[in-house]
Design goal:
7 strands; single chain; 7-stranded mixed β-sheet; Rossmann fold; globular; 10 helices; alpha/beta; disordered N terminus
């Protein structure tokens, strides 16, 4: 989980203050699980394409190092994309625009499949109809695509809105990742943010594992889940 690039950016941008231990832990665990699923996808499909939706200044491709695929696409709003170009080496493809647009799907369609779509707290904050449209369109344009994302229960969403994500409306939530299958998704794996797979937990520092165990029952972690889906064309 060491990420010297992120640590350097935090120092350069004076991001030393954190929203709190629980929020920081949830972010770390969420990233660890998503990294694990990306590695598994790349191991099975080394010539495939990974598309990260709204990565911000997260350098997941760089963090994965030699296990990153040859084809990587980041989709980010123009102002954040400009920062990525300035501060991060970036992937071969950086698409400027909203994840609600289809430009990134058209680019991804021209790259080798299958495709893995990664959403780290991005789809959860978009309008429900917009997320459904992304799923439907990606299933049609990127056959065989896989989506890994986090999902929020109502209590977890309310807590985030009251704390770290003030002034953000959460348009949709789900108590069980299977609730999203009618959208054209087939659930293949899921876990709680505070209960990562054994292979992920083994890679975490001992202190982090202990904190995750202690905070596992808190609403923030109990209602924040990670899910892996296959996109199903309808």
């Amino acid at each position: 989980m060491a990420d010297p690039v992120a640590a350097g950016l935090a120092d350069d941008l004076d991001l030393g203050s954190t929203p709190g231990r629980t929020d920081t832990l949830c972010t770390l665990l969420r990233g660890a699980v998503l990294d694990h699923w990306v590695r598994a996808f790349v191991a099975e499909h080394p010539d495939g394409t990974v598309v990260e939706l709204g990565p911000g200044l997260d350098d997941r491709a760089g963090r994965l190092g030699g296990t990153a695929p040859a084809h990587w696409v980041d989709v980010e709003l123009p102002e954040i994309a400009a920062l990525r170009r300035e501060l991060l080496p970036g992937p071969a493809h950086l698409v400027e625009g909203s994840v609600l647009d289809e430009d990134w799907m058209e680019l991804a369609r021209d790259l080798p499949g299958p495709h893995l779509l990664v959403s780290d707290q991005v789809l959860t904050l978009l309008p429900e109809q917009g997320v459904q449209r992304i799923v439907f369109t990606a299933a049609r344009m990127l056959p065989g695509a896989v989506l890994v994302t986090d999902v929020l229960s109502r209590s977890a969403a309310d807590r985030l809105v009251a704390g770290a994500l003030r002034d953000v409306d959460v348009d949709w939530t789900c108590e069980d990742p299977r609730e999203l299958e009618p959208w054209g998704l087939r659930l293949t794996d899921s876990c709680g943010a505070g209960d990562p797979p054994a292979a992920v937990a083994a890679r975490l520092p001992r202190t982090t594992r202990a904190l995750a165990t202690g905070l596992r029952a808190t609403p923030a972690l109990r209602g924040h889940r990670l899910a892996r889906y296959e996109l199903v064309a309808t």
